[in-house]
Each structure stands twice: as structure tokens, then as C-alpha cells.
TrEMBL record:
It comes from Alistipes hominis. It comes from the Bacteria. This is Crp/Fnr family transcriptional regulator. SUPFAM superfamilies: cAMP-binding domain-like. Residues 29-115 form the Cyclic nucleotide-binding domain. Pfam families: cNMP_binding. Gene3D superfamilies: Jelly Rolls. InterPro entries: cNMP-bd_dom, cNMP-bd_dom_sf, RmlC-like_jellyroll.
Amino acid sequence: MEEFIKKMREAYPVSDGALQLFLRHTERVTLPKGHLLIRDGVVEKYSYFIVRGFARGFLYRDGKDATIWFATAGMLLLSMNAYLFRSSGYENVELLEECDLLKISNETLDGLFEKEVELANWGRRMSDRIILRMERLFVERYFLTAAERYRLLVEREPEILQKAPLRDIASYLGISQVSLSRIRAGVQ
């Protein structure tokens, strides 16, 4: 839990009181590797914060899946449509290892953000980080080669390389597994 609190405070320096208020409204759950936490087409009622573990968000269409993000301790797992608009989501979230999570209803989370400015600011900072991360991925896909994107991943997020299956890493980088294998072997 200390790592989660540290990451929470890195995003925004919440007070002990705000932190305790948030924690009182969550339920700690442990779920197994491979668990599909969030499913597309469903109006999800809960959001989750990773205390310990590793997960991926992905889209599934026409028998193929595309990994759009990875998440580690301190990060948020949610369906954006369900949280923002109370409508069915387009994403899936799979746990890539056993995860300890803090579960909170979207309604409760909204209420905390409305009543507690520190938590609202923390939520905004978390959102800002997600937007920046997705924007960076989008820009990199357009302007960098696959090898350059891989090198950035190695520098920025080595944990992904240690924990995620190669197919998910290739999908996240927008390349085939064969291309990823060549890049990793130094062949371009």
C-alpha cells in the first residue's frame, strides 16, 4: 500500500485526511492473472486503482486485439465511457499478473471529487497524465520508426518488457511480432 500512496502523492500531494477519506470508500480486492476486469459493451459501475500488479487495456475487433496501454502500481483502471457518461465502454482490461486493487464505484468517486478539492485535483492530475501518455503514443506512431518506438519503451517503461507478452508489446507499438523480434535482435 505504501507504493500506491507514494504514487498517489507523486501525482498530487494529498493530505493524510484526504487520503484516508478516499481509502474509506474503497474495497481492497485481489484478482488472478488473466482476469478480464472490464469488458467492452458493458456499462461498468466500478473503477480500480492498482496497489500491486500489472494490467493492459485493449480493443477487440474482428477476432483481433490491439493493446492500447499498460498500467502498473498507482494507476487507474476504468472504462472511460462508463465513468464519464455512464454508457457502455469500448475497451477491455486484462490483468497480466495477480493484482491487488482498490475498487470504488464510479458514483462514489464522482462524489468524492465533488466534495474534496484535494481529491478532485489528484483525479485531474491522474487524468492529465493519461491524456499526455496517450497523446505521446499517438504522435510517436506517426513520426517515429518502430525501432525508435521500441527504444523509447525500453528507456521509459522497462517493466513492460519484463512483464508483458511479446504479442501485447508488438500490438502496443503498432507492429507485428515478427518486426518486434527483428528489432530486438538488432535486425531492421
